[in-house]
Design goal:
Elements lengths: L2 E5 L4 H12 L5 E6 L10 E5 L5 H4 L7 E4 L11 H21 L4 E5 L11 H14 L5 E5 L4 E2 L7 H13 L13 E2 H13 L4 E5 L1 H8 L2
Parallel strand pairs: 1-2, 1-4, 2-3, 4-5, 5-6, 6-9, 7-8
Helix pairs in contact: 1-6, 3-4, 6-7
Length: 219
């Protein structure tokens, strides 16, 4: 029996990731840690209500082979930097730590193109520090996914983001060579590439930009 553990299953990528894992024959059980109940039921699915503060109490139930982490917020939703850092750094790192402590062999983390622990940008620095601290946990397999513009239909109305998505679709073919990492990518493709990476026999640490995610989808 193989178990997947998912954090961030109510988000744009996370929701598609959860559905993909439930549809995958690779997993017999999927545990989703969410802040609110899901409008979804499946014989394979176990839903646990919790957040960063609840992780210590939930820890004994978070036993899985693979951990998928798609936790994140936006500056609009969380304008306070300390609160933002707690969601985008502390929660993913602690989730990964608990999973590793409970025996998980692999972790699959959604980050961002340009993530760098030494970046001047608060957003990119936070993502880089999260990557650094998850890597330090020493999973046998760590896969980090760095999408640029995440495209697709969201439930909430984001007119400015819709404009950027239109521009990304125009610019994508022009971004060649090393610049293709800045191509926009559908949120569903990110989710599917994470599941494909889990299916591979890779070990160590891998960083997946647009090109690597597309290659995973072709396997």
């Amino acid at each position: 029996m193989t178990t997947a553990l998912v954090f961030g299953a109510t988000g744009f990528i996370g929701a598609q990731l959860l559905r993909g894992l439930l549809n995958s024959a690779d997993y017999t059980r999927v545990i989703a840690v969410v802040r609110r109940p899901l409008a979804l039921s499946d014989p394979k699915l176990t839903v646990l209500i919790g957040d960063l503060d609840r992780l210590p109490a939930l820890a004994p139930q978070l036993v899985a082979d693979d951990a998928f982490i798609a936790i994140g917020t936006t500056r609009k939703q969380t304008p306070d930097e300390a609160a933002y850092y707690r969601i985008d750094h502390d929660y993913p790192v602690e989730a990964a730590r608990v999973a590793r402590q409970n025996g998980a062999r692999a972790v699959f983390l959604v980050s961002s193109v340009g993530a760098d622990a030494k970046a001047r940008s608060f957003y990119l620095r936070t993502k880089g520090e999260t990557e650094r601290d998850v890597l330090a946990l020493g999973f046998p397999h760590t896969a980090i996914f760095r999408p640029s513009m995440i495209m697709g239909e969201r439930a909430e109305h984001r007119p400015l983001e819709r404009l950027f998505i239109v521009l990304a679709r125009i610019l994508n073919p022009l971004l060649l060579g090393a610049a293709d990492r800045f191509r926009g990518i559908d949120g569903g493709d990110v989710a599917r590439s994470m599941i494909a990476a889990a299916r591979s026999d890779a070990t160590g640490a891998q960083i997946h930009h647009w090109r690597e995610m597309m290659a995973l989808l072709r396997r």
